[in-house]
Amino acid sequence: xxxxxxxxxxxxxxxxxxxxxxxxxxxxxxxxxxxxxxxxxxxxxxxxxxxxxxxxxxxxxxxxxxxxxxxxxxxxxxxxxxxxxxxxxxxxxxxxxxxxxxxxxxxxxxxxxxxxxxxxxxxxxxxxxxxxxxxxxxxxxxxxxxxxxxxxxxxxxxxxxxxxxxxxxxxxxxxxxxxxxxxxxxxxxxxxxxxxxxxxxxxxxxxxxxxxxxxxxxxxxxxxxxxxxxxxxxxxxxxxxxxxxxxxxxxxxxxxxxxxxxxxxxxxxxxxxxxxxxxxxxxxxxxxxxxxxxxxxxxxxxxxxxxxxxxxxxxxxxxxxxxxxxxxxxxxxxxxxxxxxxxxxxxxxxxxxxxxxxxxxxxxxxxxxxxxxxxxxxxxxxxxxxxxxxx
Length: 391
Ligand code: SAH
Description:
Elements: E1 2-6, H1 12-15, E2 20-22, E3 26-30, E4 38-42, E5 48-54, E6 59-65, H2 73-90, E7 99-104, E8 113-118, E9 121-126, H3 129-133, H4 135-145, E10 151-154, E11 171-174, E12 182-185, E13 188-191, H5 207-216, E14 221-225, H6 231-238, E15 243-248, H7 251-264, E16 271-275, H8 278-284, E17 289-294, H9 306-323, E18 324-334, H10 341-355, E19 359-365, E20 384-390
Parallel strand pairs: 1-4, 9-10, 14-15, 14-17, 15-16, 17-18
Antiparallel strand pairs: 1-3, 2-6, 4-5, 5-6, 7-8, 8-9, 10-11, 12-13, 18-20, 19-20
Helix pairs in contact: 2-4, 5-6, 8-9, 9-10
Bound molecules: S-adenosyl-L-homocysteine.
């Protein structure tokens, strides 16, 4: 295995089990590793530190083991098994719930890998060349380990680094569902379009937050802004909302939302969906809402975009504060990894102050437990939410 030697003191984060090595921390590479190849990491004074996947880019190595062990099929299968044991421990998998995240990258000590399960199909998504290279082993380990999974769909055409010039094709590596693309979340049915949908097809990270929303929905007029597949809308309907409006700029998302509402509440005229830009919708809106959900896409993907992202969150939340009824409830989220909980809260604070609404924080939310945060990798805590009482 090719050895990578770190600069003096750059081993400190590795000793605290942080799984990333930035390219600037490398002193020398003994050889010429291919992208995705396993490399052994050593400190300047030649102490073994770990084994990881090499990649060209700012994160040069993603550590998969801090011990000097063989990294073979048994190794990967062990990791998948531990991820599966964790999901069983959370108590997620039942008659009424068969969609969940099986592997959450660093949160499961599998940096560069995401696996979401929808009923009998697991969607495997590689974010590193190292994980791409072992996709068949990973798929086999999932089929061997996870009860109920019969099909594997590999979907990495948009998640692998563009510069690596790999161009993987998305497709089934094992099995294929016979025309049933539905899965259950907390007893509600959803169509999941992993073929054409965003990410792996559904945002399972909001599961617990949707349940909380259901509890607040009784008798309310609800606006689900950035609805995507309509998850929050369907829960609001089960929670006896009086009216539910779903908005997304993507026509495909609106189609999915309508289909999901119809799947659970056929011919229920409480729901209406609008394919419209969020700010345009707010500008033209004439309905008063008692409950608003704002779950926008990540406004900042890079640190350089942080300032603008915070302005964006403020601007958006101003719109919600301006339009929510007295005594209304706002569920507001940010899924930008680089925006901290405090920064997001400050943006919402500024929005509240600008609109002079009296606001109280009722809940501080995060991602569901099947998106665990590795304590040594706090960057994994990406989803932040606030539930606010707006007087
Ligand atoms: N709340 C959703 C996930 C939202 S993902 C859930 O629980 O599943 C973000 C969504 O915002 C995407 O569907 C995207 O199409 C939509 N979007 C992006 N820009 C938008 C804009 N300017 N106005 C309205 N929707 C937008």
